[in-house]
Amino acid sequence: MRVDEYIARVRGPGAPGCHHEEKGQKMVLRQRKLAAGTGGSVVVDHCQSCDSTDLQPIIFLGYLPPVNGMPEIGARPVEQPAYPAQMLRCNKCELVQLGLVVDPAVLFPPTYPYTSGTTKILRENFAELSREVMSLYPLKKEDLVVDIGSNDGTLLSNFVEPARVFGIEPTNAGKLAQQRGIDTLISFFNRDSATKAKEKNGQAKIITATNVFAHIEDVHEVIDSLLSLLKDDGIFISESHYLLPLVQTIQYDTIYHEHLRYYSLTSLKNLLEMHGLEIIHAKRIPTHGGSIRVYAARKGKYPVRDSVKATLDEEKRELSPKALADFRHRVVNSKLGLHALLRDVKKRGERVYGVGAPSRASTLVNYVGLDDGIIDCVLEIKGSYKIGKYMPGTVIPVVDEARLFDDPPEYALLFSWHIADELIPKLTQRGFKGKYIVPLPEPRIVDGRSA
Protein backbone atom coordinates (compact mmCIF):
# COMPACT_ATOMS: atom_id res chain seq x y z
CA MET A 1 0.00 0.00 0.00
CA ARG A 2 1.35 3.42 -0.93
CA VAL A 3 1.79 6.06 1.77
CA ASP A 4 -0.92 8.31 0.33
CA GLU A 5 -3.40 5.40 0.25
CA TYR A 6 -2.56 4.45 3.83
CA ILE A 7 -3.00 8.00 5.12
CA ALA A 8 -6.25 8.37 3.21
CA ARG A 9 -7.60 5.32 5.06
CA VAL A 10 -6.39 6.59 8.43
CA ARG A 11 -7.33 10.27 8.21
CA GLY A 12 -9.61 10.52 5.20
CA PRO A 13 -8.79 12.03 1.82
CA GLY A 14 -7.90 15.69 1.83
CA ALA A 15 -7.40 15.79 5.59
CA PRO A 16 -6.13 19.21 6.66
CA GLY A 17 -2.52 19.53 7.70
CA CYS A 18 -1.53 16.19 6.18
CA HIS A 19 1.62 17.33 4.43
CA HIS A 20 3.25 15.03 1.92
CA GLU A 21 5.47 15.64 -1.03
CA GLU A 22 5.16 13.95 -4.42
CA LYS A 23 8.13 12.10 -5.87
CA GLY A 24 7.13 10.39 -9.11
CA GLN A 25 4.58 7.73 -8.24
CA LYS A 26 5.34 7.84 -4.53
CA MET A 27 3.94 10.04 -1.80
CA VAL A 28 6.18 10.67 1.20
CA LEU A 29 4.65 11.61 4.53
CA ARG A 30 6.14 14.66 6.21
CA GLN A 31 5.83 15.52 9.88
CA ARG A 32 4.37 18.93 10.60
CA LYS A 33 7.22 20.11 12.78
CA LEU A 34 10.50 18.49 13.73
CA ALA A 35 12.23 18.91 17.07
CA ALA A 36 15.65 18.80 15.41
CA GLY A 37 17.22 22.22 15.46
CA THR A 38 14.78 23.75 17.95
CA GLY A 39 16.89 23.22 21.05
CA GLY A 40 13.68 22.06 22.70
CA SER A 41 10.91 19.57 22.04
CA VAL A 42 7.77 18.90 20.01
CA VAL A 43 4.59 17.22 21.28
CA VAL A 44 3.51 14.14 19.32
CA ASP A 45 -0.13 14.72 18.41
CA HIS A 46 -0.05 12.58 15.25
CA CYS A 47 1.34 9.06 14.98
CA GLN A 48 5.00 9.07 13.97
CA SER A 49 4.26 6.30 11.47
CA CYS A 50 0.77 6.66 9.97
CA ASP A 51 -0.13 10.25 10.99
CA SER A 52 -3.30 9.20 12.82
CA THR A 53 -4.50 11.34 15.72
CA ASP A 54 -6.02 8.31 17.45
CA LEU A 55 -3.33 7.98 20.11
CA GLN A 56 -4.16 6.16 23.34
CA PRO A 57 -2.09 6.94 26.48
CA ILE A 58 -0.53 3.86 28.11
CA ILE A 59 1.55 5.27 30.97
CA PHE A 60 3.05 8.57 32.13
CA LEU A 61 6.37 8.38 33.98
CA GLY A 62 6.60 12.04 34.89
CA TYR A 63 9.18 14.60 33.77
CA LEU A 64 12.57 13.02 33.14
CA PRO A 65 15.97 14.69 32.61
CA PRO A 66 18.08 13.76 29.58
CA VAL A 67 19.85 10.54 30.46
CA ASN A 68 23.26 12.05 29.73
CA GLY A 69 22.68 15.18 31.83
CA MET A 70 25.23 14.38 34.54
CA PRO A 71 26.76 17.34 36.44
CA GLU A 72 30.19 17.04 38.04
CA ILE A 73 30.27 15.92 41.67
CA GLY A 74 30.43 18.98 43.88
CA ALA A 75 28.63 21.24 41.44
CA ARG A 76 25.82 23.22 43.02
CA PRO A 77 22.40 22.15 41.68
CA VAL A 78 21.22 24.48 38.95
CA GLU A 79 18.23 24.66 36.66
CA GLN A 80 18.10 21.61 34.36
CA PRO A 81 15.63 20.56 31.66
CA ALA A 82 13.17 17.73 32.24
CA TYR A 83 10.76 16.46 29.61
CA PRO A 84 7.42 14.63 29.97
CA ALA A 85 7.67 10.89 29.32
CA GLN A 86 4.33 9.50 28.21
CA MET A 87 3.94 6.30 26.22
CA LEU A 88 1.19 6.28 23.58
CA ARG A 89 -0.33 3.60 21.34
CA CYS A 90 -1.65 4.37 17.88
CA ASN A 91 -4.96 2.59 17.51
CA LYS A 92 -4.61 2.54 13.71
CA CYS A 93 -1.16 1.14 12.97
CA GLU A 94 -0.43 -0.18 16.51
CA LEU A 95 2.83 1.74 16.90
CA VAL A 96 3.73 2.40 20.54
CA GLN A 97 5.64 5.66 20.82
CA LEU A 98 6.78 8.43 23.09
CA GLY A 99 4.51 11.48 23.29
CA LEU A 100 7.32 14.01 23.01
CA VAL A 101 10.30 14.36 20.66
CA VAL A 102 13.36 16.17 22.02
CA ASP A 103 15.92 17.84 19.76
CA PRO A 104 18.56 15.16 19.06
CA ALA A 105 21.28 17.76 19.61
CA VAL A 106 20.17 17.78 23.27
CA LEU A 107 20.14 13.99 23.55
CA PHE A 108 23.09 13.07 21.31
CA PRO A 109 25.76 15.78 21.61
CA PRO A 110 29.08 15.27 19.76
CA THR A 111 30.58 14.11 23.04
CA TYR A 112 27.88 11.41 23.43
CA PRO A 113 29.90 8.80 25.32
CA TYR A 114 28.31 5.47 24.43
CA THR A 115 30.58 2.98 22.67
CA SER A 116 29.18 -0.39 21.64
CA GLY A 117 32.56 -2.10 21.72
CA THR A 118 32.75 -1.88 25.51
CA THR A 119 29.65 -4.06 25.95
CA LYS A 120 30.28 -7.80 25.76
CA ILE A 121 26.72 -8.79 24.89
CA LEU A 122 26.73 -6.35 21.96
CA ARG A 123 30.07 -7.58 20.66
CA GLU A 124 28.76 -11.12 20.76
CA ASN A 125 25.47 -10.10 19.16
CA PHE A 126 27.16 -8.34 16.25
CA ALA A 127 29.44 -11.32 15.65
CA GLU A 128 26.39 -13.59 15.61
CA LEU A 129 24.60 -11.19 13.23
CA SER A 130 27.44 -11.38 10.71
CA ARG A 131 27.41 -15.18 10.86
CA GLU A 132 23.65 -15.24 10.36
CA VAL A 133 23.83 -12.88 7.37
CA MET A 134 26.51 -15.01 5.72
CA SER A 135 24.41 -18.12 6.31
CA LEU A 136 21.05 -16.75 5.13
CA TYR A 137 22.10 -14.18 2.52
CA PRO A 138 25.79 -14.76 1.65
CA LEU A 139 27.83 -11.74 0.64
CA LYS A 140 30.45 -11.36 -2.07
CA LYS A 141 33.68 -9.47 -1.58
CA GLU A 142 32.47 -6.59 -3.75
CA ASP A 143 29.20 -6.20 -1.79
CA LEU A 144 28.85 -3.17 0.48
CA VAL A 145 27.60 -3.21 4.08
CA VAL A 146 26.55 0.18 5.50
CA ASP A 147 25.80 0.65 9.19
CA ILE A 148 23.60 3.58 10.23
CA GLY A 149 24.65 4.87 13.63
CA SER A 150 27.83 2.82 13.33
CA ASN A 151 29.30 4.06 16.62
CA ASP A 152 32.88 2.80 17.08
CA GLY A 153 32.65 0.34 14.19
CA THR A 154 32.19 -2.79 16.28
CA LEU A 155 29.39 -4.17 14.08
CA LEU A 156 31.15 -3.41 10.80
CA SER A 157 34.40 -4.98 12.00
CA ASN A 158 32.66 -8.34 11.61
CA PHE A 159 32.03 -7.69 7.90
CA VAL A 160 35.49 -6.41 6.93
CA GLU A 161 36.62 -9.83 5.76
CA PRO A 162 33.63 -10.92 3.59
CA ALA A 163 32.64 -7.51 2.13
CA ARG A 164 33.28 -3.76 1.88
CA VAL A 165 32.08 -1.65 4.82
CA PHE A 166 31.07 1.97 5.46
CA GLY A 167 29.74 3.63 8.60
CA ILE A 168 27.62 6.73 9.19
CA GLU A 169 27.86 8.05 12.75
CA PRO A 170 27.04 11.54 14.15
CA THR A 171 29.19 11.46 17.29
CA ASN A 172 32.89 11.34 18.05
CA ALA A 173 32.60 7.55 18.39
CA GLY A 174 32.95 7.54 14.60
CA LYS A 175 36.53 8.77 15.00
CA LEU A 176 37.30 5.62 16.98
CA ALA A 177 36.03 3.59 14.01
CA GLN A 178 38.22 5.60 11.65
CA GLN A 179 41.21 4.84 13.85
CA ARG A 180 40.37 1.15 13.46
CA GLY A 181 40.51 1.52 9.69
CA ILE A 182 36.73 1.51 9.16
CA ASP A 183 35.69 4.18 6.68
CA THR A 184 33.15 6.35 8.50
CA LEU A 185 31.25 9.51 7.66
CA ILE A 186 30.74 11.70 10.74
CA SER A 187 27.14 12.80 10.18
CA PHE A 188 23.55 12.18 11.18
CA PHE A 189 21.87 9.83 8.71
CA ASN A 190 19.72 11.71 6.22
CA ARG A 191 19.34 12.21 2.46
CA ASP A 192 22.58 14.15 2.23
CA SER A 193 24.70 11.56 4.04
CA ALA A 194 23.05 8.75 2.07
CA THR A 195 23.92 10.55 -1.17
CA LYS A 196 27.52 11.05 -0.06
CA ALA A 197 27.82 7.37 0.86
CA LYS A 198 26.36 6.32 -2.50
CA GLU A 199 28.62 8.64 -4.50
CA LYS A 200 31.68 7.32 -2.70
CA ASN A 201 30.90 3.61 -2.51
CA GLY A 202 27.92 2.79 -4.73
CA GLN A 203 24.76 1.16 -3.41
CA ALA A 204 24.70 -1.23 -0.47
CA LYS A 205 23.69 -4.88 -0.45
CA ILE A 206 23.13 -4.73 3.32
CA ILE A 207 22.16 -1.72 5.44
CA THR A 208 22.06 -2.22 9.19
CA ALA A 209 20.55 -0.02 11.90
CA THR A 210 21.00 -1.51 15.36
CA ASN A 211 19.49 0.25 18.36
CA VAL A 212 19.06 3.44 16.30
CA PHE A 213 16.01 2.88 14.06
CA ALA A 214 13.69 3.79 16.93
CA HIS A 215 15.78 6.82 17.87
CA ILE A 216 15.68 8.95 14.69
CA GLU A 217 12.90 11.50 14.52
CA ASP A 218 11.64 11.60 10.92
CA VAL A 219 11.33 7.87 10.31
CA HIS A 220 9.91 8.25 6.79
CA GLU A 221 12.86 10.40 5.77
CA VAL A 222 15.16 7.73 7.18
CA ILE A 223 13.51 4.96 5.17
CA ASP A 224 13.46 7.02 1.97
CA SER A 225 17.14 7.85 2.45
CA LEU A 226 18.19 4.26 3.07
CA LEU A 227 16.18 3.06 0.08
CA SER A 228 18.12 5.47 -2.13
CA LEU A 229 21.30 3.83 -0.83
CA LEU A 230 20.04 0.23 -0.98
CA LYS A 231 20.49 -1.93 -4.08
CA ASP A 232 17.35 -3.24 -5.74
CA ASP A 233 17.99 -6.66 -4.18
CA GLY A 234 19.45 -5.19 -1.01
CA ILE A 235 18.37 -6.06 2.54
CA PHE A 236 17.70 -3.69 5.42
CA ILE A 237 18.40 -5.18 8.85
CA SER A 238 17.19 -3.38 11.97
CA GLU A 239 17.55 -4.29 15.61
CA SER A 240 15.29 -2.50 18.07
CA HIS A 241 14.23 -2.93 21.66
CA TYR A 242 11.18 -5.17 21.35
CA LEU A 243 7.79 -4.18 22.73
CA LEU A 244 6.81 -7.73 23.70
CA PRO A 245 9.44 -8.35 26.42
CA LEU A 246 9.15 -4.70 27.47
CA VAL A 247 5.52 -5.37 28.36
CA GLN A 248 6.00 -8.90 29.66
CA THR A 249 8.82 -7.99 32.06
CA ILE A 250 7.57 -4.42 32.76
CA GLN A 251 10.72 -2.71 31.49
CA TYR A 252 9.50 0.81 32.19
CA ASP A 253 13.13 1.82 32.73
CA THR A 254 13.69 1.65 28.96
CA ILE A 255 11.21 4.51 28.45
CA TYR A 256 13.25 7.67 27.94
CA HIS A 257 13.57 10.34 25.29
CA GLU A 258 16.23 8.71 23.15
CA HIS A 259 13.67 5.97 22.42
CA LEU A 260 10.96 7.56 20.27
CA ARG A 261 9.26 4.34 19.17
CA TYR A 262 8.77 0.92 20.76
CA TYR A 263 8.36 -1.47 17.88
CA SER A 264 6.35 -4.62 17.61
CA LEU A 265 6.77 -6.60 14.41
CA THR A 266 3.19 -5.62 13.55
CA SER A 267 3.90 -1.89 13.73
CA LEU A 268 7.17 -2.33 11.85
CA LYS A 269 5.37 -4.27 9.13
CA ASN A 270 2.81 -1.49 8.75
CA LEU A 271 5.55 1.15 8.58
CA LEU A 272 7.81 -0.65 6.10
CA GLU A 273 4.94 -1.61 3.80
CA MET A 274 4.25 2.09 3.24
CA HIS A 275 7.61 2.22 1.48
CA GLY A 276 7.30 -0.95 -0.59
CA LEU A 277 9.30 -3.10 1.83
CA GLU A 278 8.26 -6.45 3.25
CA ILE A 279 9.64 -8.25 6.25
CA ILE A 280 11.33 -11.49 5.20
CA HIS A 281 12.70 -12.72 8.54
CA ALA A 282 12.41 -11.87 12.24
CA LYS A 283 14.35 -13.09 15.23
CA ARG A 284 14.27 -12.26 18.93
CA ILE A 285 17.69 -11.47 20.39
CA PRO A 286 18.82 -10.88 24.01
CA THR A 287 20.33 -7.38 23.74
CA HIS A 288 18.98 -4.56 25.92
CA GLY A 289 16.72 -6.92 27.85
CA GLY A 290 15.02 -8.26 24.72
CA SER A 291 15.23 -6.94 21.16
CA ILE A 292 14.03 -7.99 17.73
CA ARG A 293 16.14 -8.35 14.59
CA VAL A 294 14.15 -7.71 11.43
CA TYR A 295 15.20 -8.34 7.83
CA ALA A 296 13.30 -6.40 5.16
CA ALA A 297 13.63 -6.12 1.38
CA ARG A 298 11.67 -4.76 -1.55
CA LYS A 299 8.49 -6.75 -1.99
CA GLY A 300 8.91 -10.05 -3.81
CA LYS A 301 12.71 -10.11 -3.83
CA TYR A 302 13.11 -12.88 -1.25
CA PRO A 303 10.91 -15.62 0.25
CA VAL A 304 9.22 -14.68 3.53
CA ARG A 305 10.37 -17.03 6.28
CA ASP A 306 8.03 -18.74 8.72
CA SER A 307 9.46 -16.66 11.57
CA VAL A 308 7.45 -13.66 10.39
CA LYS A 309 4.00 -15.24 10.69
CA ALA A 310 4.90 -16.95 13.95
CA THR A 311 5.94 -13.65 15.53
CA LEU A 312 2.91 -11.76 14.23
CA ASP A 313 0.61 -14.46 15.60
CA GLU A 314 2.27 -14.29 19.02
CA GLU A 315 1.82 -10.53 19.11
CA LYS A 316 -1.90 -10.87 18.42
CA ARG A 317 -2.15 -12.98 21.57
CA GLU A 318 0.24 -11.08 23.83
CA LEU A 319 0.01 -7.39 22.86
CA SER A 320 -3.70 -6.74 23.12
CA PRO A 321 -5.02 -3.39 24.37
CA LYS A 322 -5.83 -5.16 27.65
CA ALA A 323 -2.22 -6.33 28.01
CA LEU A 324 -1.03 -2.75 27.59
CA ALA A 325 -3.56 -1.52 30.17
CA ASP A 326 -2.36 -4.21 32.59
CA PHE A 327 1.23 -3.08 31.93
CA ARG A 328 0.51 0.26 33.62
CA HIS A 329 -0.89 -1.38 36.77
CA ARG A 330 2.07 -3.76 36.96
CA VAL A 331 4.53 -0.87 36.62
CA VAL A 332 2.87 1.01 39.49
CA ASN A 333 2.86 -2.08 41.71
CA SER A 334 6.53 -2.76 40.90
CA LYS A 335 7.43 0.80 41.88
CA LEU A 336 5.57 0.49 45.18
CA GLY A 337 7.20 -2.89 45.81
CA LEU A 338 10.67 -1.43 45.37
CA HIS A 339 9.78 1.42 47.71
CA ALA A 340 8.62 -1.06 50.36
CA LEU A 341 11.75 -3.17 50.01
CA LEU A 342 14.08 -0.18 50.29
CA ARG A 343 12.10 1.29 53.19
CA ASP A 344 12.74 -1.83 55.25
CA VAL A 345 16.45 -1.81 54.33
CA LYS A 346 16.91 1.85 55.25
CA LYS A 347 14.93 1.46 58.51
CA ARG A 348 17.64 -0.97 59.60
CA GLY A 349 20.29 1.65 58.81
CA GLU A 350 21.80 -0.46 56.04
CA ARG A 351 23.53 0.95 52.99
CA VAL A 352 22.63 0.46 49.35
CA TYR A 353 24.99 1.01 46.41
CA GLY A 354 23.72 1.04 42.86
CA VAL A 355 25.64 -1.10 40.39
CA GLY A 356 25.98 0.31 36.89
CA ALA A 357 24.75 3.58 35.41
CA PRO A 358 23.21 2.63 32.06
CA SER A 359 20.76 5.08 30.48
CA ARG A 360 17.84 3.02 31.75
CA ALA A 361 18.98 3.64 35.34
CA SER A 362 18.10 7.31 34.96
CA THR A 363 14.44 6.49 34.31
CA LEU A 364 14.25 4.06 37.23
CA VAL A 365 15.92 6.49 39.63
CA ASN A 366 13.75 9.44 38.65
CA TYR A 367 10.43 7.62 38.25
CA VAL A 368 10.75 5.70 41.51
CA GLY A 369 12.13 8.78 43.30
CA LEU A 370 15.46 7.45 44.53
CA ASP A 371 17.87 9.99 46.01
CA ASP A 372 21.17 10.07 47.86
CA GLY A 373 19.36 9.31 51.11
CA ILE A 374 18.33 5.93 49.67
CA ILE A 375 21.19 5.11 47.28
CA ASP A 376 24.58 6.02 48.74
CA CYS A 377 26.36 5.95 45.39
CA VAL A 378 26.32 4.29 41.98
CA LEU A 379 29.28 2.22 40.79
CA GLU A 380 30.81 2.19 37.33
CA ILE A 381 33.75 0.24 35.94
CA LYS A 382 37.15 1.88 36.06
CA GLY A 383 37.64 4.33 33.23
CA SER A 384 33.94 5.12 32.75
CA TYR A 385 33.31 8.74 31.76
CA LYS A 386 30.40 8.76 34.27
CA ILE A 387 32.68 8.45 37.31
CA GLY A 388 32.93 11.77 39.13
CA LYS A 389 29.43 12.87 38.11
CA TYR A 390 25.94 12.79 39.57
CA MET A 391 23.15 10.58 38.31
CA PRO A 392 20.72 12.63 36.15
CA GLY A 393 18.23 14.62 38.20
CA THR A 394 19.90 13.74 41.52
CA VAL A 395 23.01 14.27 43.62
CA ILE A 396 23.75 10.53 43.81
CA PRO A 397 27.49 10.30 43.04
CA VAL A 398 28.90 7.87 40.49
CA VAL A 399 32.17 6.35 41.72
CA ASP A 400 34.65 3.63 40.81
CA GLU A 401 33.31 0.12 41.37
CA ALA A 402 36.29 -0.63 43.60
CA ARG A 403 34.26 0.87 46.45
CA LEU A 404 31.97 -2.18 46.34
CA PHE A 405 34.87 -4.29 47.58
CA ASP A 406 36.89 -1.73 49.57
CA ASP A 407 33.90 -0.40 51.56
CA PRO A 408 31.14 -2.91 50.91
CA PRO A 409 27.50 -2.07 51.66
CA GLU A 410 24.87 -4.48 52.87
CA TYR A 411 23.06 -4.32 49.52
CA ALA A 412 23.91 -3.77 45.86
CA LEU A 413 21.01 -2.64 43.66
CA LEU A 414 21.49 -3.85 40.09
CA PHE A 415 20.42 -1.17 37.62
CA SER A 416 21.40 -3.53 34.79
CA TRP A 417 18.94 -6.01 36.25
CA HIS A 418 18.28 -7.64 32.87
CA ILE A 419 21.73 -9.26 33.11
CA ALA A 420 21.49 -10.06 36.83
CA ASP A 421 22.22 -13.73 36.20
CA GLU A 422 25.56 -12.70 34.74
CA LEU A 423 26.42 -9.95 37.22
CA ILE A 424 25.63 -11.67 40.52
CA PRO A 425 28.06 -14.62 40.25
CA LYS A 426 30.73 -12.34 38.79
CA LEU A 427 30.56 -9.79 41.62
CA THR A 428 30.28 -12.50 44.26
CA GLN A 429 33.34 -14.27 42.87
CA ARG A 430 35.24 -10.97 43.03
CA GLY A 431 34.54 -10.75 46.75
CA PHE A 432 31.26 -8.97 47.41
CA LYS A 433 29.59 -10.72 50.34
CA GLY A 434 26.44 -8.63 50.64
CA LYS A 435 23.03 -9.18 49.10
CA TYR A 436 21.67 -8.01 45.78
CA ILE A 437 18.48 -6.13 44.99
CA VAL A 438 17.00 -6.94 41.59
CA PRO A 439 14.45 -4.14 40.99
CA LEU A 440 12.51 -5.61 38.06
CA PRO A 441 10.25 -7.23 37.03
CA GLU A 442 9.33 -7.97 40.66
CA PRO A 443 11.65 -6.39 43.25
CA ARG A 444 13.52 -9.12 45.09
CA ILE A 445 16.59 -9.73 47.24
CA VAL A 446 19.15 -12.32 46.15
CA ASP A 447 21.88 -13.79 48.34
CA GLY A 448 24.83 -14.11 45.99
CA ARG A 449 26.42 -16.85 48.04
CA SER A 450 23.44 -19.14 47.53
CA ALA A 451 22.41 -17.99 44.05
Q: What does the secondary structure layout of this molecule look like, with pairings?
A:
Elements: H1 3-11, E1 20-23, E2 26-29, E3 41-43, E4 55-64, E5 83-90, E6 96-98, E7 100-102, H2 104-107, H3 120-136, E8 144-148, H4 154-157, E9 164-169, H5 173-179, E10 184-186, H6 191-201, E11 204-210, H7 219-229, E12 230-241, H8 243-248, E13 261-262, H9 265-273, E14 277-285, E15 291-298, H10 306-318, H11 321-347, E16 352-355, H12 359-368, E17 377-380, E18 398-400, H13 403-406, E19 411-414, H14 420-429, E20 435-438, E21 444-447
Parallel strand pairs: 8-9, 8-11, 9-10, 11-12, 16-17, 16-19, 17-18, 19-20
Antiparallel strand pairs: 1-2, 3-7, 4-5, 5-6, 6-13, 12-15, 14-15, 20-21
Helix pairs in contact: 6-7
Please tag this protein with its features.
alpha/beta; 7-stranded mixed sheet; 2 domains; 451 residues; Rossmann fold; 6-stranded mixed sheet; single chain
